[in-house]
Amino acid sequence: MATIQTSAINSQRRDKLIWRHSRDGSYTVKACYLQQSSKKTVIDQWPWKLIWRTKLPPKVICFSWITLKDSCLTQNNLMRRKFQIVNRCYMCLCNSESINHLFLHCTVATGLWNMFFSLFGLTWVMPRSLREAFVCWSSWKVGKSVKHIWSLVPACILWCLWTERNKRCFDGTPTPISTFKARCLITHFGWVNLSPVLSVDSFLEFISSIDLCC
Ligand SMILES: [Zn+2]
Predict the structure, then answer these.
(1) CB contact at 8 A, 182 and 138
(2) pLDDT value for 7
């Protein structure tokens, strides 16, 4: 009441709505976005650069985005859509198949992440969720020389796990783990260099260049 009483009211002017987060009082989507961004909320925590600001194949970008949005059609998500299925992970055959399990906590997924951690010379405590893993990955400070290599790893892991999962689901033919890991490294090489592996030497040189301690 004190605020209202101290305000001078001009009865000659008409009332109007004012958006107080812009200079001229008018609402725009841009002003709203900037105001929301300044709160350092979801937008800052969302690892969009790791997906959209990369030179990944478009289908991999879309797949990674869908997966982080928890919309990838794992068996958990199919059941949420009322499909009647027996939910079992095709990779380990032990747990139910959710996004966090398939891409993070399954023994096959953990083995793949650990392969890259050891190449980078890192020890890593696996986060609870895939999204947390992406946020941690994107906020990790790495040198310019390995930044490009580093940024493509999470999407590469997701893509390789999903294609292998589909192979086991629809063809019933699991790839031996050592072959699967090698295939993942070759896929990563291809995306980083925008070319397939043409010689063993170039591949070995690439592997040795991954170390963060260099
Ligand atoms: Zn599993």
Answers:
(1) no
(2) 65
Which residues fall inside 5 Å of ion ligand 1, going by CB?
89, 91-92, 106
Determine the distance separating the centroid of ligand 1 and the alpha carbon of 183, expressed in angstroms: 19
CA 135 – CA 152 distance, rounded (Å): 14
* Distance from residue 184's CA to the centre of ligand 1 (Å): 18
Give, in order, the Cα–Cα distances in Å from 64 to each of 21, 58, 99, 134, 173: 34, 10, 11, 10, 24
Splitting the chain (214 residues) into consecutive groups of 10 residues, what average pLDDT does each group show?
66 77 80 72 65 86 92 92 92 94 96 92 86 87 84 94 96 94 92 81 79 60
- Decide if 63 contacts 159 (C-beta within 8 A): yes
